[in-house]
Amino acid sequence: xxxxxxxxxxxxxxxxxxxxxxxxxxxxxxxxxxxxxxxxxxxxxxxxxxxxxxxxxxxxxxxxxxxxxxxxxxxxxxxxxxxxxxxxxxxxxxxxxxxxxxxxxxxxxxxxxxxxxxxxxxxxxxxxxxxxxxxxxxxxxxxxxxxxxxxxxxxxxxxxxxxxxxxxxxxxxxxxxxxxxxxxxxxxxxxxxxxxxxxxxxxxxxxxxxxxxxxxxxxxxxxxxxxxxxxxxxxxxxxxx
Length: 241
Hints:
Elements: E1 2-7, H1 11-27, E2 32-37, H2 40-48, E3 55-59, H3 67-74, E4 82-87, H4 93-96, E5 103-106, H5 110-130, E6 132-137, E7 140-145, E8 149-155, E9 158-163, E10 166-171, H6 174-181, E11 186-190, E12 193-196, E13 200-204, E14 207-210, E15 215-217, H7 223-237
Parallel strand pairs: 1-2, 1-3, 3-4, 4-5
Antiparallel strand pairs: 6-7, 8-9, 8-12, 9-10, 11-12, 13-14, 14-15
């Protein structure tokens, strides 16, 4: 299921965006859920309620705020949101890329260029889906991207996932959770903790400092292996000039 947010304060433009989007995914036989908004505040409010979207289609000029402001608020919840800007003219094209927008499309070209943007976006969304954890609880489904997970902790009969958008709990063993994730960036640092190396800021004997400000324990038997994994990751991401 691809989840798409459409934001435009012009009703006729919203209707056209939704129609083009729905037709595209119908023809590709890909289920989609589309939410349409006329105000940026309404979209941001849903993000605050942990509503997840794969793709954002944003108008640049809105009644309550600019599309750029909305994008900055979206980035408080998403590390790399997939944003497509649609505008009446090229005035704000440079601003769009300040927030790493995926595409900037003139509305007069929407019928041709929006489906082409989806052609590129769809494989990327499907790849992200493979790198996310799907949690089912109380008849609700929550998708947590691996890149948004800080760490996972065993708490009695539950495991708790600490992630960018809050905390999620599920009744299962920590080892079962580890087996389901199957991603090299996650590893044990203690019998009760699995961490995402992408969010480790520093490591010293006995503790890790995480990107979210928390300090996590590292068991003595695991310390050297943990240190090696961190150094290996850091060496990979260093760019040599």
